[in-house]
Amino acid sequence: MRRIGGKRGRRTVTVDALSATSDAALAHDDDGAVVEVIGGVPGDRLDVTIVASGRARVHAELQSVASPSIDRVDAPCPVVATCSGCPWQSVGYDTQLDWKHRFVVEALRAYGLEPTCLTPVLPMDPPFRYRTKLQTPISGVAGALRSGLYRRRSHEVVTVDDCLVHDAHGEAARRGVLALLDSHQVTPHDELTGLGELRTLLLRVTGGAQVAVVLIVADAGRRDWPALGAALLAVPAVVSVSLNVNGERGNRVLGPTTVLLAGRPTLTERVGPVLMELEPTAFFQTSVRGAERLAQVVRSLLPAGVPLLLDLYAGAGFFAAALADRAERVLMVERDPAGAAACRALLQRLPCPAEVIEGDVAQLIAQQARLPAGAAVVLDPPRAGLADSVAEVLVALAPTRVVLLSCHLESGARDLARLVSEGLRLCSVTPVDLFPHTRHVELVSLLVPADVGTPPPAPSPREHGAKGAG
To answer: Are 126 and 465 in contact (CB under 8 A)?
Structure first.
């Protein structure tokens, strides 16, 4: 196939593949030109309109399905064509998982790693109502606020009354919060004029269906926010209301300051044997079900009685909490001050001695002495992956097992190749689907020293689509 500049207008295309790097599916027209179209399913014949073209790519909008793929399903969301949240909703879920598995294979091979130790993708079951962190921008007018998600490639808010990937308790709370804000004539912030108050609603839902609300505003000086926060506690399930001030232009959601308005300062979340107290804006997985699945996978890769567990990029201490009962001692390293504070709050709750070091992972592990025999390391770096020096320094510490979590395919495969080049052996790669209906997939990988025998295999993952697999 060839990629051309293309002229605007209507054409019919055949969809060939989903993309690991874009929300758009890859298609070709009858002349062989490559066209990218959101909403396409491999095997579809689509009538599309070319909306943008250039030397690198041609973008089209789906007008109608001339001949559907056998893998096409009816998307249940009424705004799927305009909302930017779930571009794969028309793709059958088993097919989504197959494509994600293919993406992992391609990413590993691109860095010289053969996927012989790759498992099937672990599904989210069911693949709806999984997000327990709800972040919705605000538009509308005072007395009639609208909340939803952004339209693709714009900051126009698409109103979503009931997002099907959001937790149902969170969605009920969101509707109740909006109704109360309307009764108080709260104004939406206009990013073009700089006028107005409320920019974004952030809600976090616990596994026990308690809800924390964060009002993200451009200006905190316009009303009695504590009184409004107290009123919001009347919304069913809401137990905490906070105010975050972000007066800056741009795409950053949270400002530097969050203050409690009413209710509880933290939410309680059970992680394995430990109760974590999380501030509403603390770093935590966007899905409680997804967090539980990640904890299950990582636990299956570590034996009981680990003399030292080194939790790098510890965040709020999630993996330390999930794994502490398998360790004799835990050391958490986290650069972010708020994350490090959350880790320190865990210390008295963990079933073993633990320590928190606040600072840069690359610098701090360079100062770490060789680890004791049997020590294990869990790394959950940000999207960019490991810093350049981490792989070399980490392997020099001689851990018995290394578990690497990767939320970005390219950086995850690159990090695995670095660790292998430094003397570790890749034993298993388990993809976990944390975000159905998108291209994103999380990797959980186990590595051991190259001269160590293969550890006992982890429990076999359930086939995707199996009942109770999420």
So the answer is: no
What six digits make up the tokens of 121?
């993708």
In this predicted structure, the answer to whether residue 5 has a pLDDT above a threshold of 60 is no
Model pLDDT for residues 316-365, shown as the tens digit of each residue: 999 999 999 999 999 999 999 888 999 999 999 999 999 999 999 999 99
pLDDT digits (tens, 9 = 90+) for 102-151: 999 999 999 999 999 999 999 999 999 999 999 999 999 999 999 999 88
**Whole-prediction pTM:** 0.91
Options 3.40.50.150, 3.40.190.10, 3.30.1440.10, 3.40.50.300; CATH for 102-125+290-449 is: 3.40.50.150
Q: Strand order in 354-358's β-sheet?
A: 354-358, 330-334, 309-312, 376-379, 401-406, 442-449, 424-432
CA 179 to chain centre: 29
Following DSSP, what letter does each residue of 119-155 receive, concatenated?
PPPBPPSSSSS-B-EEEEEEEEETTEEEEEEEBTTS-
For residue 27, the cross-strand partners are 15, 35
From CA 276, how far away is CA 168, in angstroms rounded?
23
Any idea how long the chain is? 470
What whole-number distance in Å separates Cα of residue 285 and Cα of residue 167?
A: 14
9-72 CATH? 2.40.50.140
DSSP 350-409: SSS-EEEEES-HHHHHHTPPPPPTT-EEEE---TT-S-TTHHHHHHHT--SEEEEEESSH
Q: Residues with catalytic annotation?
A: 407
Closest-CA residue to 121 (of 383, 409, 449):
409
133-270, what's its fold?
Answer: OB fold (Dihydrolipoamide Acetyltransferase, E2P) (2.40.50)
